[in-house]
Amino acid sequence: MTFIDYAIIVVYLVAMVVAGLWMQKKAKEGIDSYFLGNRKLPWWALGASGMSSNLDISGTMIIVALIYALGAKGFYIEIRGGVTLIMAFLMIFMGKWNRRANVMTMAEWMRIRFGEDNEGQLARFITAIVSIIGTIAMVTYFAIGGGKFLDEFLGIPAFWGMSSEFWAATVLIAVAMIYTVASGLYGVIWTDVFQGILIFTAIAYVAVRALGITLPEEFLISMPMKEAAADGSKLFQPFATSFSEWTNLAPQWKLDINPGSDYSMYTLFGVLTMFYIFKTTIEGSGGTGNYMIQRYYAAKSDKEAGLLSLFWTFLLSFRWPFIASMAIIGIYMGVTSGSPIQDPEKVLPMVVNTLPVGVKGFLIAGLMAAAMSTFDSTVNAGAAYWVKDIYQVHINPGADNKRLMLHSYGASILIVVIGLGLTLFIKNINDIWSWITMSMGAGLIIPQLVRWYWWRLNGYGYAIGMAAGMISAILWKIFTPDTMPEYYSFLFASLISLVGTVIGTIATRPTEDKVLQNFYNLTRPFGFWHRFRDSLPAKRVEKIDAENRRDIISTLMAVPWQVLLFMFMMNLIFKVWSQALFLGVFLVALSIGLYFNWFRHLSTEVNMDDDDD
After folding, report:
1. Which helix (H) or strand (E) holds 225?
2. Residue of 330, 275, 265 lying closest to 65 (CA atoms)
3. CATH number of the domain residue 50 falls in
4. Which residue range forms the structural domain that includes residue 553?
5. pLDDT by residue (tens digit) across 409-445?
6. Measured distance CA(362)–CA(355) in Å, rounded
7. How many angstroms separate the CA atoms of 26 and 610, rounded?
8. Looking at the domain assignment, is residue 555 inside a domain?
9. What pairing do the DSSP bridges indicate for beta strands 234-242 and 218-228?
10. pTM to 2 decimals?
11. CA separation for the pair 209, 573 (Å, rounded)
12. Is 42 inside a domain boundary?
């Protein structure tokens, strides 16, 4: 790092803080403004911000590591979360269903689904608690990855018993926290838009550099090993592969991975891939929460919910050329030096470290932008659960705007401090990401899914299922070894959650019909809602049925469309043109189908009385 590189980074950080403080006045109008931007933000800004929020350093380091070590087939592993495949479901129907509730948080959504009495209040409270815990876990995940990355460049020494990685993460998070706390969603969205421009510039530079590299047919990569060295440090072992095998995107049932490697968990590749697709399909069909769903609550109409999703997904596809470029450059560094990069999780920072003066500072600033855009969205959404769903409902219902804003600031700061503190106990990026996606996520997936499609699910069943799932995920993390396969944690948490959901629902009375009818009138989901659907006028029922049929068919096209789009973008960097042509033909066919079956029917509807198609 030279003075020029440091100067670029400092200018960027100062600009973010100034922008956040400048937008503080707008955000201070009230919590609707602070957490939703008064629902006046344009769809393209919400979509661009969503893309930026998905491009975190930690996730990018993991995916680069998987592509570097396993080749193009590492893409399938990241269907578990890194591909963000739930965007296909949000784009077609889940985004507009959530928008129609006209709420601020997923916890507040519970009063629409389960009512204002005890069951609705319990479901809302449990959802808020679970969401705050999830936010803290995500902050920890961001801090670990950001600390690992920035520690390679900033040169911050270890002191007060804390590692240099901890202090690097603290610097990153402190800056992001200033503008996030000050400006709320206004600051999050508009700084994300600016940061997205920076990110895309960085992607373009790295992609051009990677396109100028031709890898040999045979080369070495490296994988982490389960066995530690005598001094307790991590061991890595080189493995030989070929370019044709490394770039091959064709699915395989089984991978030839050394049983002693940490990545041996991916040997049964076909089973895992199907499992990840199954998990993501359930997750997407149940919606999502926190920072992703917050953008849909802020959307103006059904049409804008669809447009922001489409724009978000398209922009997010450019992440994959960046990841492929980093992996290729990392391999090329090993080829030219005669020894592969040992730690796959360090490929990203080591590649950045080879860049020219000025370019390095600019790219580091771009990756810091990616980290902060994810962090700011998560913290802003997490704080909303405390203010809107716990403090304002259970502690001080009569709180004025000034007190609510103070709690908004305080909740944001406390979430960050706890999340950062947990980095002292959790060190591995893949460990925390695996737990978030495969254990904690599994514990919530059943009640999240059932709430949309089965009228009989009540607030008690939902709350018990959510609480049981979260507790089982936490106990799994504490008491089981890290070597246990991911799908074991998923099955354990989801099974406990399922049992809790069913018992809680069957043992208690159903939600009142008038609450369920109102919920159906607002959202009109498909599923087991015939009794409430049939109470509507015949013309309205016909319109709902037509919309539901289109959405189901469009979803069956949108899921493979998103997968192929991301694969195609990554393959352009590989320069395997026969594979690119194959992917491109199917991508065009699905795009045409989506245009006629989904895009043409996007509605400007804001509420049920609108009849615009």
Report:
1. strand 218-228
2. 330
3. 1.20.1730.10
4. 8-217+245-336+345-424+546-601
5. 898 889 888 888 888 777 666 666 667 766 777 788 8
6. 10
7. 30
8. yes
9. antiparallel
10. 0.85
11. 10
12. yes
